[in-house]
Design brief:
377 residues; alpha/beta; 8-stranded mixed beta sheet; Urease, subunit C, domain 1; 38% helix; TIM Barrel; 8-stranded parallel beta sheet; single chain; 13 helices
Length: 377
Amino acid sequence: MTETVLDNARIVLADRVVDGHLVLRDGRIAEIGEGAARAGEDFGGDYLLPGLIELHTDHLEGHFMPRPKVRWDKMASIQAHDAQLAASGITTVFDALRVGLDESDIRAAEMQDMAEAIRFASANGRLRAEHFIHLRCEVSAPDVVDGFGMIEGNGLLRLASLMDHAPGQRQFVSMDTYRVYYQGKMKMSDAEFDRFCERRIRQSQEYSPRHRPVIAERCRAAGITLASHDDATVAHVEEAVSLGISLAEFPTTAEAAAASHGAGLKVLMGAPNVVRGGSHSGNISALDLHRAGHLDVLSSDYVPFSLIQAVFTLAGSGDARLPDAVKLVTANPAEATGLSDRGAIAPGKRADVIRVKTMPDMPPLVRSVWRAGERVA
């Protein structure tokens, strides 16, 4: 039997914060007690939260391709990515891997190798957080179904999102915004950009209606959670519901978010949107959705630390009670992906917990992290 006692902590439970202690035993939460324990690690009044659950992070790709045309060692990339996640309080992560060639030169075969490297690293105790795979499927791409098939059999695949980044719709209704993002990113001339847009629109019209139902059916058959991406209209949401989608990622309008929430989909938005006070691409504010009661899950997206930062931003501004803000990054994403063994500090739950120190006018500091009762950061 292995036992760890964490004492003198402000423990964030599902509905309240209590001053007390926590006993971790054999990888599970064994006891929650108010007041001091007989012996244990003294938290000095720091917060004790459930480990954070991250459903959509593109962060691994930045480690693998730190510069255009540069490829880093896959295992080293995964370990560096994992270390930063753990230091940000994330104990469960769905690594977003892309299939379907769009503006990047990353190929499906590389993503297949990356998925296998994640599986190997997980199986051989090389990682601090628990890793699953989130497959980002660019349904407008001609090769997306083949790419999906290359990773479909990986046992860590638990989430897939159906996305279409063609101009003039969804995330990029504004062509001016699309031009700033893609032309600047890819260093295209005006003529090259016009040809790029023409090709992407043509592919979207030809392939998206064909590929969405095919991938959705294969996910449903395999028990893989399905997400929509960048829904902008009620029609988009109705299509998502018809495909068996249960998670709405980054809806771009209040209309789509309200329709998704009303249809029973979990609505996911970016934690950087909360921290910055708005969307970097000019779409709907996550804070506005939260205030309307239409926000269920936060994702760190491209900044791992933004997840814990957003929790204390919401609580500090008075927009949410701390237990409710914590649910956005713990209990709710756990429920959305069927991870019933974690996401809350409660007896019997897996002992994924983090110690967080706060100071006025400073971002929170993640001081310690335990996964399944083992100290990992």
